[in-house]
Amino acid sequence: TQLLEQSPQFLSIQEGENLTVYCNSSSVFSSLQWYRQEPGEGPVLLVTVVTGGEVKKLKRLTFQFGDARKDSSLHITAAQTGDTGLYLCAGAQKLVFGQGTRLTINP
Amino acid sequence: NAGVMQNPRHLVRRRGQEARLRCSPMKGHSHVYWYRQLPEEGLKFMVYLQKENIIDESGMPKERFSAEFPKEGPSILRIQQVVRGDSAAYFCASSSRVSSSSPLHFGNGTRLTVT
Q1: B98 pLDDT higher than 70
Q2: Are the beta carbons of A74 and A21 closer than 8 angstroms?
Q3: Predicted confidence band at B103 (pLDDT cuts at 50, 70, 90)?
Q4: Tens of pLDDT along A30-72?
């Protein structure tokens, strides 16, 4: 069974700070996706990473896929209150989801 | 709205009743996934269907739960004889499944409450 562990589970920081959240597994994934979910809504895809070592940027968000394709990180620079939400990573092939990091950005 | 449509948004059932959750995938998508989410938790895979076929139901309880995706019409997740522990948000997602990295497009979920 492929398992994804996300850390931290909860994170609360002040607006303007930087943060990194992690997604780790003992399994190798052909690709990994990051989603953000807001209360009362379904998850929305942020990015897909496919190649080991790949780095993708989405404005203030930087996603990295580990060289061995077992782990990934999401770094947010100068966090804003609009970044608040549940961040989920999901690994192919069955799109197994981690338990998420619940991020709160305080004004 | 060409997105994934789930209905109802909220469903209240008494113990022992049946719950039917519907999901219309995005136009052109023939792959549907159902996930269950408890408060403060991530998404737990239940079942993956392609038109008229169940591809993977390894996450679905063997009893009381069933899913279908007919040739015509929405995908249905059916829960018979609901119990309090079935209370959760149920999300449907669809994809074109061109590859295993094809993104999933999620609906806004059905929140089932069993009283």
Answers
A1: no
A2: yes
A3: confident
A4: 899 999 999 889 999 999 999 999 999 999 999 999 999 999 9
Closest CA to A36 of A93, A80, A67: A80
CA torsion angle B62 B112 A40 A17 (round to 10) = -60
To test the contact with chain B by mutation, choose from A54, A94, A99, A104 the residue with the greatest count of B C-beta atoms within 10 A, namely A94
pLDDT at B86 over 60: yes
The pLDDT of residue A93 is above 70: no
Residue (of B13, B24, B7, B19) closest to B105 by Cα position: B24
Q: Which of B50, B98, B101 to mutate to test the interface with A (most CBs of A within 10 A)?
A: B101
CB atoms within 10 A of CB B2: 8
Name the strand (E) or helix (H) holding A101.
strand A101-106
Alpha-carbon B27 to chain mean position: 17
Average pLDDT over residues A8-18: 96
**Collapsing DSSP states into helix, strand and coil, what is residue B41?**
coil
Q: Taking CB atoms and an 8 Å cutoff, what residues of chain A touch B100?
A: 30-31, 92-93
- Nearest-angstrom CA–CA distance, B101 and A4: 16
Q: Report which DSSP code applies to A83.
A: G
pLDDT at residue B100 is higher than 90: no
